[in-house]
Design goal:
The chain is built from 4 helices and 8 strands. The protein is α+β, with helices and mostly antiparallel strands. It is elongated. The two termini are about 40 Å apart. The relative contact order is 0.16. Bound molecules: zinc ion (ZN).
């Protein structure tokens, strides 16, 4: 993954107290993560970075839209996301992820790349059930042609005896 310098905070130069950062996350951001299931999106991230004597407290506000695959019809759709996440950074011998919310970075570190955290938080903001939202008239927003085809396919699989023959052949191999 290539580093995105806009997302690197050189905290050594910051005074104690609160600092505000805002990030526009777009398609280029997701392209940097090769295996991202999100390929496109438009997300606004505001970060409140509190520098304390011995640790940092980062509060992320994430809000926007990402383009992901629908679980039902497999077509891409726009999913609204909105969440807030906190990350505590403390200092120690070496880099270590203590938990989802606490990381340790080396004493001599002078900057932090927040891109991987923003990436992770955007994924955490996704709903478990990812489907097209319903239309105004109450019907499904999914591609009905695809749904119909998928249904036909699963029905034919259950009833078509040729499949059973093939399956038996496969088991023998
Ligand atoms: Zn759908």
């Amino acid at each position: 993954m290539g580093k995105q310098k806009d997302f690197i905070i050189p905290f050594v130069g910051l005074g104690l107290g609160f600092h505000e950062f805002t990030y526009e996350v777009n398609d280029v951001f997701f392209e940097n993560f090769e295996y991202s299931e999100i390929k496109k999106g438009n997300v606004n991230v505001s970060l409140s970075f509190e520098k304390q004597e011995s640790m940092f407290v980062l509060d992320f506000q994430i809000k926007g839209t990402v383009n992901i695959e629908c679980d039902r019809c497999l077509e891409d759709y726009n999913q609204d996301i909105s969440s807030s996440q906190q990350l505590i950074i403390q200092f120690g011998e070496t880099y270590n992820e203590e938990s989802d919310e606490i990381i340790t970075i080396p004493e001599n570190a002078y900057e932090i790349d927040v891109a991987p955290y923003i990436y992770e938080y955007i994924h955490l903001s996704l709903p478990i059930r990812r489907v097209h939202s319903g239309l105004k008239d109450g019907s499904s927003g999914c591609n009905q042609k695809v749904i119909k085809k998928l249904n036909e396919h699963s029905e034919s699989e259950q009833t078509d005896p040729r499949w059973d023959v093939l399956k038996k052949l496969k088991e023998k191999l």
